[in-house]
Amino acid sequence: MRKIIVIINWIARQARPYIKSLFIIFIMSFLLSLCGVGMVIASKELIDFAISGMLNQALISGLFLLGIVLIQVFMKAAVSMLSVRVSETMSNNMRERLFLQLTEVKWTEYNQYHSGDIMTRMTNDIGGIVSGIVEDLPEIITLGSGVCAAFITLLIYDPFLAIFALLLVPVAILLSQFIGKRYMKINIKAKEAESKYRSYLQECIEHMLVLKTFCHEKRSCRRLKELQDEKKRLYLKSNLTSVSAGSMMTGGYWVSYLIVFGWGAMRLAEGTTSFGTFTAFIQLVGQIQQPFMGLAQTLPQMFSMAASAKRVMKFEELSKDDNNNLLDIGIRIRNITFDDVSFEYKEGNPVLRNITTEINQGEIIGLIGASGEGKTTLIHLLMSLYKPNEGSISINHWYKTNISLRSMISYVPQGNTLLSGSISYNLSIGCPDATTDEQITALKEADAWEFVSKLPMGLDTIIGERGHGLSEGQSQRIAIARAFLRKSPILVLDEATSALDVDTEQRVMDSIINLQPRRTCIIITHRPSLLEYCHRIWKINEGKLIEQEKHINEVVASEAI
Ligand SMILES: Nc1ncnc2c1ncn2[C@@H]1O[C@H](COP(=O)(O)OP(=O)(O)OP(=O)(O)O)[C@@H](O)[C@H]1O
Questions:
Q1: Are 43 and 65 a contacting pair, CB within 8 Å?
Q2: CA-nearest residue, atom 9 of ligand 1
Q3: In the chain, count of helices (H) and strands (E)?
Q4: ipTM beyond 0.85?
Q5: What are phi and psi of 162, to 5 degrees?
Q6: 132-161, pLDDT tens digit by residue?
Q7: 84 Cα–ligand 1 center, Å
Q8: Domain named ABC transporter: which ranges (predicted)?
Q9: CA–CA gap between residue 99 and residue 103 (Å, rounded)
Q10: Among positive and negative, which fits the CA dihedral 102, 103, 106, 107?
Q11: Whether this model's pTM surpasses 0.80
Q12: Does residue 508 contact residue 500 with C-beta atoms inside 8 Å?
């Protein structure tokens, strides 16, 4: 019960900013339900007046009925337009906020979620919550107020029938209690299955090349089908739960309807009721009982909304990256010190151990070590994506917790990290204010301008996901230009020239040495040729950092310092 209250509070918090619009929707929905009762009364009057030959009164009742119909048409249109407006604004804002929250989550925790799962929560689950608030809740209010209005009217016409019609209330409450819990459990499982299925689908689409070249298409289809079937099975199961509840309610409704019909027919035969009152009985009993059937259908949606809310709330529970206080980019970095830094992803499995070293301003460091030794991890620690388990990383021998060096670093990660869009757009990620001339200069420094200038659309050439349309080496050079554009004092290249030929790599490295202002640079590489440009070489071996002697051509770059 406490969990349910937490979820309801959370949903209420989401709805609060739209309370005025929601209130208008609720009021209009309430008036619409009153219109339903008004129509019953007007049609009863119309029938009774017509039977007794009072044509003028019948005409007035007819006009009254017409007025209600028109009001209903107008209000339904207004409710629909307002609902769409509120839904769109609410879902956009929720997604925006969630996205922002995710950007602030600790990197370790963020990485526990598959991107497909995140997408499902951001799209399906938020969509479910919003439609629950904007559509289902007003419907419940409409149904509830409709029941009250019809009950009072029926009470006036025939108290016995009113009480009888209410017999379904305790049944509905018990049923919703029992079925609600079960439904929510299955629904959460179904949503998890949906996330799994979407994640797999997304990954297959992303890595179609791998699937095709390994002739894995049929197997992938089979796996996709398995996930789809599991999702279907769970959705069918949750649907069965809600349908059984609905069927029980419908059965109850028809039994009571027939009893009321028989009761009314008997009274009509006895002459103790008019034909108009009889039709009103039938309609009013329907007005009370139909909402209960409606509730049987709407309540599962409420539980589904609660299940979605629970999934979205999970993201709010993730720990925030407390290293989001970015260091002022204006600070002059004289040195960066690693002081007895140790790190492990999993307890008892250290990746880096007791690393103590220093980089001075303007130095070019070559970072080497066998694959999986922890080079990228060291860089991620430097960028405050992770925190050392022990020790600290400081600048200018000054250490403060919760300060991130990230703003000081231009990073060229491993792999193809271009986004779909124009080359110019990709460069603007490095520096949003860079002019076209500055972008061209950066491309020249990264030895990329020659090929970009030959493209028919030049800087405006659209490239696909992960640089599709460019060669691996071309994509790498654009990623390097993007990092050059960010005028931060530290440049980190993580195997960023691995796809370049020796001559191109040499030109890029010459540019790095001559970059103005001079950058402190860490180059992760497996290529000995690159080490010629480095002043010092760090090797990571079994978690330890060893400073290596330089034998290679004693530094092209040392003159540059
Ligand atoms: N998110 C993670 N969770 C758990 N272990 C991880 C994670 N990322 C990396 N590791 C492990 O940490 C170790 C170091 O990984 P890292 O990527 O830093 O190596 P690397 O030296 O950069 O390798 P490469 O040269 O192949 O790029 C590896 O054994 C890897 O399996």
A1: yes
A2: 377
A3: 19, 13
A4: yes
A5: -60, -50
A6: 999 888 888 777 777 777 778 777 877 776
A7: 47
A8: 331-560
A9: 6
A10: positive
A11: no
A12: yes
Nearest to 285 by CA among 260, 250, 255, 249: 260
Distance from the alpha carbon of residue 345 to the mean position of ligand 1, in angstroms = 9
| Cα distances (Å, whole numbers) of residue 81 to 77, 256, 392 | 6, 37, 57
Compute, in angstroms, the gap from residue 411 CA to the centroid of ligand 1: 17
Which is the closest atom of ligand 1 to the Cα of 414? 27
Q: What are phi and psi of 282, to 5 degrees?
A: -60, -45
- Give which of 84, 287, 312, 278 is closest to 191, Cα–Cα: 312
3-state helix, strand, coil in the chain (%, to 5): 65, 15, 20
> What is the spatial distance between Cα 521 and Cα 514, in angstroms, rounded to a whole number?
12
Decide whether any atom of ligand 1 lies within 6 Å of the 543 Cβ: no
d(CA 18, CA 98): 18
Q: Single out the residue of 2, 328, 8 nearest to residue 137, CA to CA.
A: 8
* Rounded (10°) angle between helices 275-317 and 137-157: 150
Residue nearest to atom 17 of ligand 1 (CA): 376
User: Counting Cβ atoms within 10 Å, is residue 281 exposed (0-12), middle (13-18) or buried (19+)?
Assistant: buried
Q: Are strands 390-395 and 409-412 parallel, antiparallel or unpaired?
A: unpaired
Enter the tokens of residue 153.
Answer: 């009217």
CA distances from 391 to 343, 401, 529 (A): 9, 11, 33
- Ligand 1 neighbour 345 (Cβ under 6 A): yes
Q: Two tokens at 213?
A: 């070249």
Q: Kindly report, residue by residue over 89-138, the tens digit of the pLDDT.
A: 999 999 999 999 898 888 888 988 998 899 999 999 999 999 999 988 88
